[in-house]
Write a sequence for this structure.
């Protein structure tokens, strides 16, 4: 990703789960080397209370980018990042992802009742069946 962004001649924005906090990433040289800035909400983005989902944008557009959270998306335990880029004069040609229906997969899940019993599996020279470890063989 670093090589692609360094060689890209235009403006760019990368959003995602970086598995580190915005502060931890900003404390490295990576963002500076890319010519970008970290843009975060300052709020937890996971149910665990950590903020690991955020945006890195090129310096030229970073001031036009704002990020908010949406917890209604179906990909828990993370919130969606809602990214707004305020680009005056460029509003007529903006690509946007299609809307998707929000459903809670765990709440709407129905398991079949006629499932076969699980077969024993060997784990590190032990037998495991239905979540219980048997003694070593």
């Amino acid at each position: 990703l670093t090589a692609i962004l360094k060689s890209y001649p235009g403006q760019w924005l990368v959003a995602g789960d970086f598995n580190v906090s915005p502060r931890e990433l900003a404390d490295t040289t990576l963002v500076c080397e890319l010519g970008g800035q970290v843009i975060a909400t300052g709020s937890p983005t996971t149910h665990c209370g950590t903020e690991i989902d955020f945006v890195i944008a090129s310096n030229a557009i970073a001031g036009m980018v704002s990020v908010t959270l949406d917890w209604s998306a179906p990909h828990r335990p993370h919130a969606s990042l809602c990214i707004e880029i305020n680009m005056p004069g460029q509003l007529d040609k903006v690509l946007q992802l299609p809307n998707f229906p929000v459903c809670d997969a765990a709440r709407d899940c129905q398991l079949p009742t006629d499932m076969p019993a699980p077969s024993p599996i060997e784990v590190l020279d032990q037998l495991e069946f239905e979540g219980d470890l048997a003694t070593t063989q």
